[in-house]
């Protein structure tokens, strides 16, 4: 292990340590809460246990029962049909930008954002126990993680990079296959979860690497936090000159501070767009004022959620 393993344990490491102590042969199937503790809620994530989404879910809802699913669309469907009480999804990375698919899914499903959190993304090179770096010829990880470790991979040309569907899933694969010539790029927590070895920690190009995650619930079950100081909205504009400027001017006039704006194409309507915005808010009245102001210029306005702004 590298010296990184002596740092304070993450929520996953604490959770897995208790689980392993109670059941030494614990499997890596869908994650369950600590032994003897009732599950707070079932939370769906896209990816495998041990992923950064798993870490974010436990940060938002300690002791949650994690339900890992393969596709983001399955995660939102699980919330919509009541198979789970909530989901935790990545919405934006400080280096790679927004997760566009998740904006689309927020709009098309009857869900609300209730909380957000930030997770520091720290990548590690992970292999089977007893393997040295010189034995590694293949490295698997999610394409975004590979892109965030370009300098490390360039410095190790004998390691050929292969895209995989999930960071933690790449660790799970090499452990299941017992592949001593392969490594994965994932979190330290994933190495602990699957019983793998960290060859080198902190291999990302840029240490200022954070991902923002949302906790979402079905709209009928969602309760807005009375301490909310941030909201997310989606709106579409009339297709005429100056409509975006007019809408944003309305928000400015009521003192709403816009912290993010993102555009996505409207499916089936070339060159028309949905705009997603995050705003700081001072009261619930400001939410209704902002929606009313936008409605004067927009063909559609949808509140995606209101929540406390994550600090980081």
In the CATH hierarchy, the architecture of the largest domain is 3-Layer(aba) Sandwich
Major sheet description: 6 strands, mixed
> Level of helix content?
25-40%
H/E element sequence: HEHEHEEHEEEHHEHEHEEEHEEHE
N-C termini distance: 28 Å
Please state the CA-atom Rg, rounded to the nearest Å: 21 Å
Task: Work out the helix count.
Answer: 10
In CATH, the homologous superfamily of the largest domain goes by the name: Periplasmic binding protein-like II
How many structural domains can be distinguished in the coordinates? 3
CATH topology of the largest domain: D-Maltodextrin-Binding Protein, domain 2
How much of the sequence lies in strands comes to 25-35%
Total number of β-strand segments? 15
CATH class of the largest domain: Alpha Beta
Q: What is the quaternary state of this protein? A: single chain
Mean pLDDT: 87
Look at the helices and sheets and give the structural class: alpha/beta
Global geometry = elongated
- Stretches where pLDDT is under 50 for at least 5 consecutive residues are 1-7, 18-30
Summed up:
With 312 residues, the protein is of the alpha/beta class. The chain is 29% helix and 31% strand. Strands 1, 2, 3, 4, 5 and 11 form a six-stranded mixed sheet that branches. It has a five-stranded mixed sheet with strand order 8-7-9-6-10.
